Recover the amino acids of this structure.
């Protein structure tokens, strides 16, 4: 199997001829991932932010199998169904601000594409066809499709591979003010200048609220986010919040916008939406945006084949209920304390530039890029599933992780750092 995989399967962001090693996995339950050779790893990744309740959860399994007995899929053009309506009800009840309209799609990247389309169509339909550009922050990440890539960080975000093809947007510097601190002097200045100079050509500002994820795992000041939202209002530019990574409690609030009391015009969610069971995302909008697009008979030009897939929407309903029924706030706060205590000693390590923790996210930033394959082998040998990238070794475990399991993860990072000298 491994030979065939190596010869024929493409894995994320890796060479086709000299790929990073892939570990064969046979099952997963709770916070444990079982490899084909019988070893069991504690999950530090939640499978890229999504498996918040752990794996093989009886309630989520039940939601999928119950729905499977009714229908696995049916087109959303011309049909509707209870799982989709139920999920929209739940999302509108828990998301920040005045969001009233829900568009379901297949993945986070597509949710971002849809958000961008909404902003462009809204501006054109409301008599401002010249507003075709976006303003965003350096250090951001919004997905791998072309519209999304164009607003990823221009240096570390794949732009070099697609020069001449990506839409040309505007980038403000990465916020310097750290989460928990007030807005540093001058930190919002460049953003303010950009939005002021270009408001007439801007459809929207798009950003990851509070936590910039795959672009650098950076946590920034809620004051910065508040200032951005106020500037968007002042210049009549839409605000798109990409909460695909941060949504559903990961930062200690249900949505990261809540840290700043900010109400976006458009919101993207994904990843943890289905508790990690199936690919599903959603783009939510205010009535103002939806009604603007639909003025004079306009329609939003998007409609994926698997839109509002019944299996995915059913398990998402159950995942949200499970989250809200349980003590997620306490669990994430407990994880925050556990991560802070477990990672703090590494700040003194010579290879380490910074250690930071927010909610159920713990980050060890190194001075130099890490050797991914060697480091990961060491983590696996220590019984931990941790996937570093660039200069970042980070943990975002399922919320249900036990303290002893978390200790396995933090100890593994300690052993990994020894490898870095
Ligand atoms: N936005 C953010 C903030 C993300 O973290 C990601 C995924 N890492 C995406 C968008 C893209 O989501 P997907 O991989 O589901 O397309």
């Amino acid at each position: 199997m491994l030979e065939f995989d190596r010869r024929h399967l493409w894995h994320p962001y890796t060479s086709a001829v000299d790929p990073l090693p892939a570990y064969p996995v046979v099952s997963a339950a709770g916070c444990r991932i079982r490899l084909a050779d019988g070893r069991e790893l504690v999950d530090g990744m939640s499978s890229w932010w999504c498996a918040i309740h752990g794996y093989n959860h009886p309630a989520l399994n039940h939601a999928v199998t119950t729905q499977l007995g009714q229908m696995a899929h049916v087109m959303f053009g011309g049909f509707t169904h209870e799982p989709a309506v139920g999920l929209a009800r739940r999302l509108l009840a828990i998301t920040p601000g005045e969001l009233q309209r829900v568009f379901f799609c297949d993945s986070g990247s597509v949710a971002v594409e849809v958000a961008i389309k909404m902003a462009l169509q809204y501006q054109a339909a409301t008599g401002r066809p010249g507003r075709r550009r976006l303003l965003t922050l350096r250090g951001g990440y919004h997905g791998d499709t072309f519209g999304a890539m164009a607003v990823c960080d221009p240096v570390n975000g794949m732009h070099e591979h697609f020069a001449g093809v990506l839409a040309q947007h505007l980038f403000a510097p990465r916020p310097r003010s750290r989460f928990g601190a007030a807005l540093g002097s001058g930190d919002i200045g460049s953003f303010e200048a950009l939005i002021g100079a270009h408001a007439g050509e801007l459809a929207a500002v798009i950003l990851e609220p509070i936590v910039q994820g795959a672009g650098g795992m950076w946590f920034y000041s809620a004051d910065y986010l508040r200032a951005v939202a106020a500037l968007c209002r002042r210049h009549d530019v839409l605000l798109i919040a990409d909460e695909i990574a941060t949504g559903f409690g990961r930062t200690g609030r249900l949505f990261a916008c809540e840290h700043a009391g900010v109400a976006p015009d458009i919101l993207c969610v994904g990843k943890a939406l289905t508790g990690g069971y199936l690919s599903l995302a959603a783009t939510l909008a205010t009535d103002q945006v939806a009604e603007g697009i639909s003025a004079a008979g306009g329609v939003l030009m998007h409609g994926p084949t698997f839109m509002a897939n019944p299996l995915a929407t059913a398990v998402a309903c159950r995942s949200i209920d499970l989250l809200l029924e349980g003590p997620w706030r306490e669990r994430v706060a407990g994880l925050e304390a556990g991560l802070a205590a477990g990672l703090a000693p590494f700040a003194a390590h010579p290879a380490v530039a910074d250690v930071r923790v927010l909610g159920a996210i713990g980050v060890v930033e190194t001075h130099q890029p890490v050797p991914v394959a060697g480091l990961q082998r060491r983590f696996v040998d220590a019984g931990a599933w941790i996937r570093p990238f660039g200069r970042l070794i980070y943990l975002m475990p399922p919320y249900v992780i036990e303290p002893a399991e978390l200790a396995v993860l933090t100890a593994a990072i300690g052993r990994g750092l020894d490898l870095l000298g």
In short: The domain at 2-57+327-420 is CATH 3.90.1150.10 (Aspartate Aminotransferase, domain 1).
